[in-house]
Input
Amino acid sequence: MKATLIYGAGDVRVETVPDPKLREPTDAIVRVLRACICGSDLWPYGSKPPQDHGDRIGHEFLGVVEDLGAEVTGLKPGDVVVAPFVWADNTCDFCREGLQTSCRHGGQWGSNDVDGGQGEAVRVPQASGTLVKLPVGEDSALLPSLLSLSDVFPTGHHCAVTAGVDARTTVTVIGDGAVGLSAVLAAKRLGAERIVLMGRHTARTDLGRAFGATDVVAERGDEGIERVRELTGGDGTHTVLECVGTKPAIETAFGVVRDGGTVSRVGVPQYPEVPADFGVFFRNITLTGGVAPARAYIEELLPDILDGRIEPGKVFDRTVGLDDVPDGYRAMADRDALKVLIRP
Amino acid sequence: MKATLIYGAGDVRVETVPDPKLREPTDAIVRVLRACICGSDLWPYGSKPPQDHGDRIGHEFLGVVEDLGAEVTGLKPGDVVVAPFVWADNTCDFCREGLQTSCRHGGQWGSNDVDGGQGEAVRVPQASGTLVKLPVGEDSALLPSLLSLSDVFPTGHHCAVTAGVDARTTVTVIGDGAVGLSAVLAAKRLGAERIVLMGRHTARTDLGRAFGATDVVAERGDEGIERVRELTGGDGTHTVLECVGTKPAIETAFGVVRDGGTVSRVGVPQYPEVPADFGVFFRNITLTGGVAPARAYIEELLPDILDGRIEPGKVFDRTVGLDDVPDGYRAMADRDALKVLIRP
Output
């Protein structure tokens, strides 16, 4: 089959790799209907040292069950399924606590001989726990939004949930990438009435407004902090959803959070430490968030997509075939595309 | 009257200062029955640059109402009252949210012409909001435990509450000072069944066991982390209560917290930043806590003291008169005393 490999910064290739086969009785083989490129794929795409062998890449996909190991329950060939971006048994103590990203028998796509998501098919370990059956056909118009359940929408949701967003909280979302916009949608869905989106790309912030942002702040740094404070009577917002991962973004988060408030971060941190000095301490600021246990949220979010109440798939603004995945990476890295959908 | 002043590191003096008088109609004058020395007083005692004038010091006291401004309600002369370690109107939006430390009209003892607590009397601003009436006489045997409501016990309680301690959470408390021991007592009161206390002073950890600690770990650093992990099946505890404030202590906290868990800190931070790298992110660790809004907790904690169900005042292991306050500082700095009670 064909699959995507990364050889180093700026060097993504689509090559022929061995077809996946069942290895463990808990495995499934899934033929990929839709995959996509994640903002977090852009970190290695931007900085990975060159190497002579490619590493499989991609961790968001949905597809059709083709083959099942003897111990897999709850699935049958032909089922349309979505996979969260980390595989997990969904039965261990961490999974039962809703932290499938720390599953005792889980792992990540594209490493340790597990396929990446940006290919024609994937061997899925712990298939009973990992995969969620979707009550749709292979040609459903809902596939983009359902694919978003793999990572980007639950990541925005995790950010809002861990921040404690509800109808009583004001919200600042930092970042107008696909995760930031998903966080806006998630905050709105959780009842937030005041959502300030910090971003400067009008096409993206327009989608943010459609998703529920009530205010857009294009300024950055101290100027951006001042602007959010102006909008909130000088106080900042109860919750801040940091969806970028850079040091300036997390510093802005601490600048716009209200005393007693919470900063939640889901942008993969490109910094080793965060401010935690006496000022942060005296203001009782909480820092939470982390890698989203998407699996924990899929059943909760799915009905809203099936009913058409939300359309998180609107973050996809470009579609490529598998052969054009390298172009998709370039488009996202150049900020030409917000998020690229792949139809293998 | 006599009051305590600090002139620099190691230089605390008791001197005659002007008697406090009502200035605002919202003021009260309180004659101090009991005060004490806080672990946080030891930071300036250890490092304050010398100066030619003394600064008033002390922020924990209970006493008797002597005089009241015209606008003070709910109090009368002769009432025995306790003051939280930050004064507040208890009516603004932050106070209503339980964050009296960020009160819009509040402030700190011993600055801006407000008396410190380590003296014979105190002018109390925003007296209606700040003071809590205690249903005891001036000679009550409960005074030490009631004094602990001013700071040390609510601080331990705040640490446990913000960490989310309950019957289902395992707990590590870092530090066997008065705050750490108070955090043990608070965690036990909130239902925690497994409480690991990290501390190496046997007299103190013995009190920690009496307060509810189930395990004591004397080791520090990597060795201490390993020991706590051994005690918890390799995983660490759901909650970690960091009651010291040093960089090694907060680093230990991140080392002993379970994936998905919470580190809460109430030790005044002597570090500018905390670890927040990909490892912390992937493990979904939350950092919370901060300066405790003691006022928010006094009514909740008071009945347990009045009924004798808890005795947080056991952290006081030495009592001095006002003239001997400098000895009290020395004893605490030398770790000769755990926490020093002052009877002016």
